[in-house]
Amino acid sequence: MERLEKDSIDLSKVNVFKLFYKYFIPTLLGMLGMSAVTAIDGICVGHGVGSDGIAAINIYVPVFTIATGLGLMIGAGCSVVASIHLSRGKVKAARLNVTQAMAIATVATLVPTVAIMSMPEQTALALGSSAHLLPLVVDYLLWFTPALVFQAWEAIALFIIRLDGSPKYAMSCSLVTAVANAVLDVIFIFPLGWGVMGAAFATAISLALGGLMAMGYLLFGARTLRLLSPKLSRRSLMYSLRNVGYQCHIGSPGLVGELTLAVLTFVGNFVFMRHLGDDGVGAFGIACYYTPFIFMVGNATAQSAQPIISYNFGMGLWTRVRQTLRVAIATAVACGLVVTGVFAAAPQLLTGLFISLDTNAARIAVGGLPLFAMAFVFYVVNLTCIGYFQSVERVKPAMTFALLRGFVYLVPSFLILPGIMGNAGIWLSLAMSEMLTTLSIAVFMATRHRRSPVRA
Questions:
Q1: Domain span at 337
Q2: What confidence score (pLDDT) does residue 3 get?
Q3: Which of 4, 376, 392, 445, CA to CA, is 20 to 30 A from 223?
Q4: Residues 302/380, Cβ–Cβ less than 8 Å
Q5: pLDDT digit string (tens) for 128-141?
Q6: b/e for 195-210, b at 16 or more Cβ within 10 A?
Q7: What is d(CA 408, CA 294) in angstroms, rounded to the nearest whole number?
Q8: Looking at the 3D structure of the chain, how many domains does it have?
Q9: Residues 231, 183: contact at Cβ < 8 Å?
Q10: From CA 287, how far away is CA 76, in angstroms rounded?
Q11: Is residue 364 part of a domain?
């Protein structure tokens, strides 16, 4: 029987440090490429349309993040389940779980796509669009939404491709998406003058390319985890729903993680509008364009550790599990510090990539980005720890900490800190939420270590 040990990466024997970085470097580059898709949109729109264009796209961001969260939830859960099956020699079961995940995700994405396309203005208003921004939001929505299914395919498949022993191909899918988006953004927004519609169309095409590349690998190029022909009987459907339900149970913290970005954007838009008006929303929009980069750094760390942890967890090799966790947390801290330093040292440069520095929105962003960056170390460490709990099928703590950082701590921070610290409190709300979550995780893990030192 074909086993993962026969592939190019042996998850049970290779030195953990070398193994982790064999996954981490291509995964990080690929993740940053995915984040570049939205950032390039913002840069081109900021210079081609202005701060209203950035604000309009920021209104739509919650839809984008929820769709990404769906993919991360199913992808993470599927990868954990498939890793454990592979560690026990159950290759067909692993392939079946991957097939079921891709099929159910396709249907789950197409249904809201049709609903959104049928009611574009109502959707835009429900997302918080003002009358002034409504035409721009609707333009972006109509041209971007059809690509949500390809986005889900790519988000899920990248987990599986890395597990299958091809992290470099996973990276190439993300980089093709980013490069195509950059080229098409420039063409559609500047020579053709299509504005936010052009940005949406460029992103839709690039996501379709990445999604089709990823799906093509699972259909034709996979070493072990190639898709199976689906069975359409009632019994098979119920079995698929049960399996994907369990995958979603394991991966649900990934959805909550993306919902954190949605909540951050939605509540942040409201608070910035209340305290600083449209220019404040424009400035916050710039920060929101950078936030996915930080999210993807954390995701890259967690996802690089996940196949190693899950596989060795399935084999009962707890020493390798703990070693991988230590390497992942150290990497998270180092990456968080580097990114924080960049934001603290060069807020003018980071702001100027999106809009002219002589605008009021730019002045607000330049003052706020260093404060916003104080969240980044905690942010990346939290994602890494939550990913660890998912990888060892400990869904309850993973979900608890995901909810703490995404709702329990974040929303009150946004509502309380501005009253205490003024405008600086708005920018520091994310840092407060992430720091409190890190402290909660540290207390939990210390308590767990005292009770069960073998599996801490």
A1: 14-451
A2: 39
A3: 392
A4: no
A5: 777 888 888 898 89
A6: bbbbbbbbbbbbbbbb
A7: 21
A8: 1
A9: no
A10: 27
A11: yes
